[in-house]
Amino acid sequence: LTFAQWLDQHGYTSRPLRWLLDYACRDDYGAGLGRISAWAGLHYFASRHGFEVPGQSEAHDAVLTWPQGNGWLTQRLAEDLGSRWHSGQVVTQVDVGRDEVTVQAWHSGQPCRQTWVARQVVMAVPLFVAQRLLTQPLPALQTMASRMAYAPWLVSNILLDKPFFDRPGAPLAWDNVPYASEGVKGVDTPALGYVDARHQSLAPVTGPMLLTHYWALGGQAAAQGQALRQALLKDDCRVWAGRVAADLVRVHPDLPGLVKQMDLMRYGHAMSIPVPGVRGHAALAALREPQGRLHFAHSDLSAYSVFEEAFTHGVRAARQVLRASGK
């Protein structure tokens, strides 16, 4: 079932509730409650702090973050590897043989082609990428790669000459989301609001201000998601800049006169949309097991796009490599 179907069956029709649930799905999964599975929709709330029985209080840990975001984690993981860490490698082909795996790569820093030979290989990439890299077809991978869905995103950084007028109502937050927002002309799905990049700074903001606006374009159905993907690919960047401005001006009417620069970036979200019928598929379970000398590790293998799932599959794959190596 989709989350929308499950909510209909159980009589959850409150407009504010449906708005919150749809926003949560678009924010985490890139698509609305009409497209994601009921399991994923329920699990979003079942696995998070901040949702508790009315009248009961619970102590929560503070938010843990770094200026570099997850880049900080990447740096900490790599710092002890020394010369064993090779960055700037773009893999173009993986060929599995009887006694070894050959990996062809392009070194972007040299630039040149390089060939790597290994006894075991962990492929920590989305499943559709893994399918393109392998020279020999893998039936379970072919089955799942065609079933996985991914959301296109538009991320826009808007530099203002000075802060916008502080209107009455809710104060400026880190993540600012207009309630019951709708799409704009040319985009029939609402945006996710914007982040104030300096919200956690203790210094008063008197000069330029930077906002980061997010638009998840997975839609409420596969057809709508495909149409939004095509629009993101084909429409001029100035058209999309106008749409971003039109979305923001409903909250900040004085914003157009303050914009100094706007940078837009199209992303193919690397985490899959948890659509119905994927999480429990037998072919997906098969890919969690060693495939000869190949081991897969990615949140795709859970059909659920969270960091903890990707981390868990990485640990599993590492243990499989150790067992295959007799350690």
Based on helices, strands and strand pairing, what is the structural class?
A: alpha+beta
| Overall number of strands | 10
Strand content: 15-25%
Q: Secondary-structure element sequence? A: HHHHEEEEHHEEEEHHEHEH
Query: How would you sum up the major sheet?
Result: 5 strands, antiparallel
N/C terminus separation:
43 Å
Mean pLDDT: 90
Low-confidence stretches: none
- The percent of residues in helical segments reads 25-40%
* Order of strands across the main sheet: 6-7-8-5-9
Q: What is the global morphology?
A: globular
Computed over alpha carbons, the radius of gyration is 22 Å
Q: Output the number of helix runs.
A: 10
Describe this entry's structure for a reader.
The mean pLDDT is 90. The protein has helices spanning 3-9, 15-29, 38-46, 71-78, 127-133, 139-145, 222-234, 237-249, 282-286, 307-324, and strands at residues 89-96, 101-107, 112-118, 121-123, 149-160, 175-176, 194-196, 209-216, 259-273, 294-296. It is α+β, with helices and mostly antiparallel strands and 327 residues long. A hairpin with a 4-residue loop joins strand 1 (89-96) and strand 2 (101-107). The strands form 3 sheets. The protein has a 5-stranded antiparallel beta sheet with strand order 6-7-8-5-9.
